Give the backbone structure.
Amino acid sequence: LARRVLTRAARQGDPQALLIMDADTRAHPYALHDTVRAAGPLLRGRLSWVSTNHAACKEVLRSDDFRTGPPETPLSGLVARLAEWSAGQHVLHPVEPPSLLAVDGEQHARYRRLVSRVFSARAVEALRGDVTHTAGRLLDELAASTTSEVDLVERYATLLPLTVISDILGVPEADRPQVLTFGAGAAPSLDVGLSWSEFSHVDTSLRAFDAWLGTHLQRLRENPGTDLLSQLVVATDDGRRLSEDELRATAGLLLAAGFETTVNLIGSGTELLLRHPDQLARLRAEPERWGNAVEEVLRHESPVQVTARVAVRDTSVQGVAVRKGHLVATMLAGANRDPAVFTDPHVFDVDRANAREHLSFSAGRHFCLGAALARIEGEVGLRALFERFPDLALAPGAQRRPTRVLRGWERLPVRLGTLV
Ligand code: HEM
């Protein structure tokens, strides 16, 4: 039903079109973002408010007048009771409680306290050497390719974040290809308006991922390592901190968020730099600018395009009244192209002084826990790639991911050229 309402809305110029998007709009969504922004800081669509205005999105994300998690519907009570009844048996969804992304208040603070130490900027900086080593090993494998043309997403952009997060979470090497398949299958679970066949594929993938996770956690329980998940299992088993559902939800989110988003940063970064050789030349001349270039890639092609919040009381955003219970879709990608904040917002400029003001990692209490790690993976990963293959070039056949919330390349064929 949501799909039908949204598709009709999209045809009638409803701002909700941004949430469903046909393939053409998905390839070039930014004109629609501009149209929505020009019409006001917050627009009322058929199912929710929509904003592509930087100040409004930031205000909503930071405000205590809004909560995260699914909106209330006439069926919410029933769904909550079913979830309670099936606790410990049902399949956990990345954007439904008890996922970190979908809870607030003390519950959220408790989950975050348990895992944030491992992902703090300082802790992650200590991993820079490991990330560099992993990138080097993957590039060695690429260099040993028997073909001169490869799919960069398959051979590098996916494998770097997957390897790094799997090492942090103690995922055995043999299980990683399987985890990748589950992740790819489950990624559209973030999108609204899935068709029945899309929904069943997502559901099967979520179930398979959940079953694997259960086995993996049991393995760690019997034979704990020094990884973060082993620590969480111990924290669960002493009965004080996490229930079994909370543990599976947190572990699953960390793993999936760890590679499903950063793959898009590395893929989009590669494509953007190959299409803007002048910008690449700037980075070759001044490699200390790579950190800022990663911020500009994040701003220009937000890997997570949108998130949403629900008003917990009657409130207002940039002067627009929003009633309790109303849903606001904050288009992070649209906020990142707001000319009130970014001069010439559609220009890709690795020297942009305020690129870091993007909202690609969200804002407020749910600000991305893995931001420091993603930044290092982007910087090390892209720099190492372009240093190893100075003649890297795009080849025909690039294909976008079909997902709406996650934006990136499904396939990015490149010619490797000579290597250094
Ligand atoms: C939350 C984006 C990489 C773990 C978020 C949110 C965004 C985001 C937009 C907040 C959603 C909201 O406010 O509703 C990204 C992007 C990444 C990235 C663009 C890469 C370029 C990572 C990595 C990890 C990670 C590598 C690995 C640990 C998380 C977690 C949350 C989160 C656990 C939930 C935080 C909370 O709700 O308190 N991310 N992420 N992310 N991210 Fe990331």
Observations:
- The CA atoms of residues 293 and 350 lie 4 Å apart.
- The mean pLDDT is 88.
